[in-house]
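Box S1 | Example of a co-folding query
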Amino acid sequence: MFGFGAKNIGIDLGTANTIVYSEGKGIVLREPSVVAKNTKTDEIVSVGSEARAMIGRTPASIVAIRPMKDGVIADYDTTVSMMKYYIEKSLEPHSGRPDVMVCVPSGVTEVEKRAVIDATKVAGAKDAYVIEEPFAAAIGAGLPVMDPTGSMVVDIGGGTTDVATISLGGIVSSRSIRMAGDKLDEAIIAYVRSHYNLLIGERTAEQLKIDVASASVEAAKELESQSVRGRDLVTGLPQTVEIKPEDVATAIQEVVQAIITAIKETLEETSPEIAADVIDHGIVLTGGGAQLRHLPEVISEATKVPVFVASEPLDCVAIGTGESLKNIDVMK
Ligand code: ADP
Ligand code: MG
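Box S1 (continued) | Returned holo structure for adenosine-5'-diphosphate
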């Protein structure tokens, strides 16, 4: 290899966040997967955090788009624009086109995979490769994925929760469910609306989740109430309401239980040897949703397996995707 040309990059193209890893450097970019567009001219107004701040606050002429939904591309053109912007931002000036590794959720269709590869090339990659997200998450979490021992990783992102057992460099069994961070936010919005007569926005619900949500209704009783602003459904006027953490915990129970069910089903499908390995080493949680309060305890209680949160859970997939760039020559 010669020192010219671009450094290869790995991209975690997530429903909530896009993270870029540059070979030899590590993570060089972390931005929300959001693009703001002018609805009349179709021009891009802003990308990333600036666009995210506009969600729920746009005038008629601007729309804030999240081009990824449930882990896959929902708006192809906007995804390309966003990736183009992030790829350019991650490269050194005057470097050539990089080879790019992008992760996709396990269980995506060939068509969805193809769309990611095409979008990445149109966005500026010389060549594009995909890696399955739970596999990348496991590498990023430091699990011994190549060893003849079973590991289990649960990646809870914005759109999907991906559960997988991994051994000898491959995924043994996996589940991908469309129940993750966004569904937690939606459940909170619905609950606050029906129990407090208050209409709150997506961003407010997410903040409430980060501030007080707990996977355990019992444990939530120890947390302090949170005041939240929204619109009173009766008067139609702005209103501040104190929300009890146990209510937030109750609101999200269904999503938490769906995640637990997916974990149990994946465990039931594995061989007794791998199940035994998982009991020994525990389940590792990655993704932003892994930071939900008391989630490890609740999963552990339901599965009778120890559960840990990876260090830097939000970065695991990007790190694993970046590390697997080493194998690009093999994949070629
Ligand atoms: P994706 O890979 O889908 O882009 P991420 O792994 O970046 O998703 O995680 C984003 C999700 O994590 C969002 O739904 C966000 O609200 C959620 N999240 C971030 N921090 C926390 C937290 N402290 N508690 C619970 N959820 C969180
Ligand atoms: Mg992710």
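Residues 14-17, 157-159, 181-182, 206, 209-210, 287-289, 291-292, 314 surround adenosine-5'-diphosphate (ligand 1) (CB under 6 Å). The mean pLDDT is 95.
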